[in-house]
């Protein structure tokens, strides 16, 4: 059994079909990068995995549990799937520590002391142990995104989803976030990331998926896919992004 | 006591023209003075700003009813007797100026600061910057709240009934005194205000929507 | 100008004036409490999933916001007795002011709720928070912070607008003014003093509301 099993998923917004029969499996410990033009459905696919977006047909299974089923307790499932967004989405009225401990104390009913210990640990992991008291608007974009990663990490997820997490950052801040991701990869975290950072995808991802018009157009070992594109669509896409 | 007749109702509804006249004249007077208040509020000259803020606080911090009485009786102090119409238009013009001045200042402040810097770099004076660069941009932003204030003013002109000016509300009181049909009369009065205000509200909402799309 | 100002005649009635001011504050306080309750209910209806309730709340808001408070007051105080509902001036004033304020607070609260970015709700849900928990920990505080200034200025507008209930002889500050006027015939002085008293109250509460905002919502 794979950790994530996506089978023939269709999704539309009104008349527009954004996913047209997508199937994909992800093994524990695997790192999969998803690339493609905007509107190709890559972010939607990611958001379907933790049930933020409902799907019209097909199945998505996480850790043996069907995501798109009325019987599934999405709250339980989401504790095991972390997601980090392009726009950070930190809670502006809470400091970094409280952003991180909120899920631990409220959802996991953890005693505050224990939650704070974990907050310190994950903040150290992202290199921000001195910013526990800082509010989001006091942090740079790169720092906010690292806190957002720490917030997800604190819930000890089995899978982490990253939705274009460097796209809203100034170029000089991208490096610090990618370094954190590389650290997670080294620690063996299962990750799916939608990204435009081709160099990073090439070096860190095990597998690369190219999506085009709601379908998986090409996939395979990251280097192989990038070095030897098989379809004109991927060739043109790679030609249009800076590597 | 007599019956409520169709001609009573007609007379009542026709009094709406005085509500509208009072509103329109007050808007005109208020806009002239309001423009001055707005300019005083945004030019980089602290005493002017202080005067404008004092004026806005005085008007917005006191009941329109009180302002109306002060203007109405104030002329008596100087030995002049003024008509309710004159007192009401003057009081509501002064009232409108504070609100419109503040609304327009908000519009001016919503224009990005870089526009001031860019126009200053061309060598324009403060008033020229306002006239040619800032106000044309602030204007669009200010239209919906300005119309919103007109609605507020239409409703507040009902207070002029208190000093005996015969507009919709006063006409209602007169008809009610003669026929004693308060529910019918006042609901009719309310309906008349509703029609006037609702048209303006819808216009404001539509403009707000289209302005948002156009940007 | 041969007019002699006689403010002393008016200020001699300070006990009456203060009593009137107190009634004005009580009237405002009660109306704010009920107006806020109506506003929460109205906003819940307007942002809810049930279309008939949405429509009812919408009609309520439009009717109130597009008619004058004075006329609403006349309908309640003079109109309702003709269908058998008799109210004292004070009751009529409180009911009308609450219903009037309720329409404005409905819109303010609705706008606050709708201004919360969808992404914040998603981020909360992604941590496994339930709907109620997302509301309590993620939405509530920022939404309150956002609507507080608008609510505070609406409350001050209400405080000032209570003067209008003098027209149905509810014995608040402005009505006391009319009473003193009828005894002293010093109209100009009376209304200047009364108006100044409203200004003092309005400025005091504006300061108080700002202080509360600073204390509750601005982090130190």
List keywords for this structure.
heterotrimer, A: 243 residues, alpha/beta, Rossmann fold, six-stranded mixed sheet, four-stranded antiparallel sheet, 9 helices, 10 strands, 38% helix, globular, B: 215 residues, mainly alpha, MetI-like fold, elongated
Give the CATH level 1 class of chain C. Answer: Mainly Alpha
CATH hierarchy class name of chain A: Alpha Beta
**What's the SSE pattern of chain C?**
HHHHHHHHH
What do we call the CATH homologous superfamily of chain C? MetI-like
Q: What share of the residues of chain C does DSSP label as strand, in percent? A: under 5%
**Which architecture of chain A does the CATH hierarchy give at level 2?**
3-Layer(aba) Sandwich
Could you list the spans of chain A in which at least 5 consecutive residues all have pLDDT below 50?
A: none
CATH architecture of chain C: Orthogonal Bundle
How many extended strands of chain C? 0
State the helical fraction of chain A: 25-40%
The name CATH uses for the topology of chain C is: MetI-like fold
How many H/I helices of chain A? 9
Distance between the termini of chain C: 56 Å
Cα shape of chain C: flat
Explained architecture:
The complex is a heterotrimer of chains A (243), B (215) and C (220). With 243 residues, chain A is an alpha/beta fold. Chain A has 9 helices and 10 strands. The mean pLDDT of chain A is 92. Chain B is 82% helix and 0% strand. Chain B contains 9 helices and no strands. Chain B has helices at 6-14, 16-42, 46-60, 64-77, 84-110, 113-121, 126-156, 168-179, 182-214. Chain B starts with 5 loop residues before the first helix and ends with a helix. With 220 residues, chain C is mostly helical. Chain C has helices at residues 7-11, 14-47, 51-65, 69-79, 89-114, 118-126, 131-161, 173-184, 187-217. Chain C is flat and about 75 Å long. The model of chain C has no long low-confidence stretch (mean pLDDT 93). The chains are: A alpha/beta (243), B mainly alpha (215), C mainly alpha (220). Chains in contact: A-C, B-C.
